Amino acid sequence: MIPQPFVKGSGERVFFGQFEYPAGADLIFDFGNPASFGNTSALSASNAATTSPAAAVTASFIPFNNPSPTYPTYSTDGSGSIVTLSNGSGTNYLQWQWKSTEQQSNVLIYKPNGNQSSGANQYFPRAAGANSIETQIVYPNSNLYINIADSSNSTTSDVFGVKQFNTGSLNGQNGWNMFVVTANASNSHNLYINANSSSLDTTAITRTTSGLQTTNFGLSSNAKIIAFLQYPKILTQKEIRQIYKVFYQRFF
Question: Phi-psi bin for 53: left (phi > 0), alpha (psi -120 to 50), beta?
Answer without folding.
Answer: alpha
